[in-house]
Design goal:
By secondary structure, the chain is of the alpha+beta class. The chain folds into two domains: 222 residues, no CATH class; 112 residues, name from scop, CATH 3.40.1690. It is built from 13 helices and five strands. It has a five-stranded mixed sheet with strand order 4-1-2-3-5, sandwiched between helices.
Amino acid sequence: MGNEGAEKTEEATPRRRRKERERGNVAKSRDMDAALVMTAGIALLAVLGKNMYQTMLNMLRNTFTNLHVELVDSNNVMGVLVPYFQYLAYIVLPFFVLLVIFAILIIRMDVGQVFALEKVKFNLENLSPKKMLQNAKRMFNPFEPRSLVEFAKSILKLVVVGACGFSAVNARKADLMGLVGLETPVALHIIISILINMIINMCLAMLVLGYIDKKYQTYEFEKSIKMTKQEVKDEYKDTEGDPKVKARIKSIQMQMARQRMMSSVPSADVVVTNPTHYSVAIKYDKTKAPAPMVVAKGVDYLAFQIREIAKENGVPIVENRPVARALYNNVPVDGVIPSDLYVAVAEILAYVYKQKNE
């Protein structure tokens, strides 16, 4: 509310990052992806090119060897074309299938696992004239910051990539000038080698520009998801809970536990006291535990309440300072007494049972 003008100076929290990822907002670089996909495509052509070239030669050889005009029937055009479709499939399909697989892997490496339904959800508001006009203004406004950045990036890419390609050709200028008069296979070999150098230079330039763009996109994304100090506080309250509410809940829980503990005092066998500061109620039930249990304990005012409830319900009260302190400090409520206190507690219980029998 009063937080709109606050400066966003805080790094995004893990929860904020998770929410942005769920919405499909991640740092991604199209230039880096395009450069990697193009490099992968050229590498695939280098690997599969020989087989593609051989398949193309076989297709042409088959065409000029077996195709006769008198065998061509206008009623069976598909029968004539099917072998060519098969050749084209052998040439093109492996390349495109592998390229698609590489493209998916590259995008996955760039943005990770993202599945955001919001990005593909149809929204009628996007078709409203007002929304379309806003998008058009944003797209064609030359002074919009993002448009200016994208325009500058496009010019930079064109100049840098073009310059790298030209440098490869310019370095082989003498070879190009000497093509005149050479035999066709030799000339083709030189041209292909120049083209390979040019493509390698251009790919390297695109990869460098893509890496720079990736860093820039990451910076922009981190900047866009920064939070104000108040947003961080509000998120902490949402995740961890309001400290005041947590304190209130804890207070209620302690009160309920205290009431439950006090309700166990009337059924205790004995209350061991300090005599005033500590009170520990003990019960021995063979069916529930192999040794006596502490059913209630308290200090100061709570100890006084335990003694008062014990008096009202006729529960014996025995003063034993070391045992009372040891039980209070070492045994939780509903906990069994430790073995090193067996003898001391047994003597107190024996004394109580003897008093009852008398």
